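Inverse folding, one chain.
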């Protein structure tokens, strides 16, 4: 895994409304476990062939009636090479997703920057100010090693809390920006011994976020 500071990348900053590809999140087949892997793989294939391309993909999630029914959709906008809209549309269709289309413009200030293409790699937010890319290439700009597949590594250590001398210490952690809401929700239930489905991560509107939304999206809602 490669990590780079955001100041080392040319992450797009857009203020103008941008056209999008919209996908109904609930129509994504379960075997894909959301859209993140689909988008990353599609962008990685494009980036490998076009290493000079620099583009940032903004994502907005919200309700929609564009498929003639009420859906919860993800809207993908591009700051940079607009060919990536076609790349994403083709990838979603190839994954047998029926509810996908070119769609409405989004205001980038309401979206999150969830993917970035530069130097032939796909970068994703790790934490504020830092991006990561899945790669095994040696690179002097690598900041640290891949933490592995341990679910605990989706949480960054912060502090140790001892509520009383008789209690066991509990380590509190901060959820990584790229962790899914579902991953963190299940982790909270496990750590605190709560029943499955008892935890919900909600936005300011009191509505629970979809499981494949990222923690970055949750934080953006509360900013």
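Residues assigned per position:
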């Amino acid at each position: 895994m490669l990590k780079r500071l955001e100041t080392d990348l040319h992450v797009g900053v857009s203020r103008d409304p941008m056209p999008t590809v919209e996908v109904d999140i609930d129509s994504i087949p379960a075997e894909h476990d959301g859209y993140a892997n689909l988008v990353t793989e599609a962008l990685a294939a494009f980036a490998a062939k076009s290493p000079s391309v620099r583009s940032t993909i903004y994502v907005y999630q919200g309700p929609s009636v564009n498929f003639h029914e009420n859906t919860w959709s993800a809207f993908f906008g591009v700051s940079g090479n607009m060919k990536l809209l076609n790349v994403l549309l083709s990838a979603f269709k190839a994954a047998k997703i029926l509810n996908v289309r070119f769609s409405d413009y989004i205001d980038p200030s309401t979206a999150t920057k969830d993917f970035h293409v530069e130097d032939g790699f796909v970068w994703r937010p790790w934490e504020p100010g830092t991006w990561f890319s899945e790669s095994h290439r040696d690179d002097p700009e690598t900041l640290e090693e891949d933490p592995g597949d341990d679910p605990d590594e989706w949480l960054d250590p912060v502090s140790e809390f001892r509520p009383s001398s008789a209690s066991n210490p509990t380590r509190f952690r901060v959820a990584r920006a790229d962790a899914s809401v579902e991953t963190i929700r299940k982790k909270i239930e496990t750590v605190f011994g709560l029943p499955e489905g008892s935890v919900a991560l909600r936005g300011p509107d009191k509505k629970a976020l979809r499981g494949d939304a990222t923690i970055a999206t949750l934080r953006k809602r509360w900013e």
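DSSP finds four helices and ten strands in the chain. The two ends are 29 Å apart (CA to CA).
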